[in-house]
Amino acid sequence: GVLSNLSSITDLGGFDPVWLFMVVGGVMFILGFAGCVGALRENTLLLKFVSCFSASEAQTPFEPVDTSPALDFSVFLGLIFFLELTAGILAFVFKDWIKDQLNFFINNNIKAYRDDIDLQNLIDFTQEYWMCCGAHGPDDWNQNIYFNCTDRNPSRERCGVPFSCCIKDPAEDIINTQCGYDIRLQVDLKRQKYIYTKGCVGQFEKWLQDNLIVVAGIFVGTALLQIFGICLAQNLVSDVKAVKANW
Description:
Blueprint: H1 17-41, H2 44-47, E1 48-50, H3 53-57, E2 70-72, H4 73-93, H5 95-111, H6 117-130, H7 188-191, H8 200-210, H9 212-246
Antiparallel strand pairs: 1-2
Helix pairs in contact: 4-9
Pfam families: Tetraspanin
Keywords: Cell membrane, Disulfide bond, Glycoprotein, Membrane, Transmembrane, Transmembrane helix
Family: Belongs to the tetraspanin (TM4SF) family.
């Protein structure tokens, strides 16, 4: 539900990110299926994506398969690893652009906060998890027609913030959804007692810095697993070729 609406609040020219998830998921399924079953059956045809199947089908089961028109399973894994490495480098080089996109995303989400329950839940989760309010601060909620401070705004939420901006009281078991009412009419020092005053963009950057070792460890661990899979696939194909050559 959230992903189906992301295209309306992202600056991607109408591209729906759901298609990206579907394509990546499809590729992962095909690679996983071919690698798993190919390894279990010791079948090079499943460890390779052959571009000319008719030539392979003409072989007898015990004849070495001509793999000249084939792309190794490990080559596909290597290509995926290269794309991931490239994405990581680009993310580091264009971190300012990513920051702008995150700012654009949050601000657009703020504007549409009451329009879609999925987006509303997404922004509430973000603000609660990162203990933030708005993209750069609570005043960003002026962009929402229900929370802005204009005199023409008849909403009871005028000059307020969503409950997800409120600092939680450990003694409260039930969420007070009205805790942010009129809070932006108060001075900054008083706001700090009741709501988060830091923006989500800055809190996200701080979260990345605080968890840099964990994030880097996950990426390095994933990369090592992929490299290990590439080596195993190459070794298995070589062993199968050696056995077939003896036949």
